[in-house]
Amino acid sequence: MDHQQKDWPECLAGAEFAVNNKVHTATKVLPFMANYSREMRMGGNIRKKGKVEKAGEFAERMKRIHEEAGVALKKAQEDMKRQADRGRKETEDWKRGDRVLLSTKDLVFKERPARKLVDRYIGPYTIQEVISTNTIKLRLPTSMRLYLVVNVSWIVRYREQVEGQKKEKGKPIEIEEVEEWEIEKILNKRKIRGVDKYLVR
Known about the structure:
Layout: H1 12-20, H2 31-36, H3 55-85, E1 99-103, E2 108-109, E3 121-130, E4 135-139, E5 149-151, E6 155-157, E7 175-176, E8 186-192, E9 195-200
Antiparallel strand pairs: 1-3, 1-6, 2-7, 3-4, 4-5, 8-9
C-alpha cells in the first residue's frame, strides 16, 4: 500500500484470500472449507480436468464439516461463557427500604487523601427506588455530591451489628465526584464527534 493509502482496493483480494485460508479459532476449520467443502486453490493448472464429485457425496461431506464446525463453535461459546461468569455474582433481590453499604472504589474524598486508608464501604444508606435489576436509587446526604442512581455492583447488603458490639456514629462525609469551575461567559461552542464542546472564560 502506498503512502497516501489510495491503492487499498487492490489489496482486498489478497486480504480475502488470507482470511478464507486461515483456520478459524472457534470453528477450527478454514472458512473456505466450511463454505465449499474443499481447500482453496493455490496456483496450478486451473484447466486440468479432475474427477467430479457426486452431488450426494459432496452434500454428505459438507454436512460432516458443518457438524464438526458446530461442535467446535459450541465448545468455544461454553469456554467464553465460563470465563465471563468468573467475574459475575448472583444478583440479589433488592427492594425499597433495604439498607446497603456503598463502595468507595471510585469516590474521591476531600479529607482522606490516602486511598489505602479509606474504608472499602461507607453507609448504611437506604434504597429509595429499585429502577431495574442492575440499578437502584439511593437516599444519600446532600454533602455527598453524587448521582443518586448507582449500579448494584457498587453496593452490598448492610448487616446489623450484633448485640454487644461497639457502635460508633459516623460523621458526615464530603465527597468530590468531579472538579467544578465557575465560568464567567461562554465564548464559543462546537460539536466534536456528536458531543458539544464549549470555550469558556
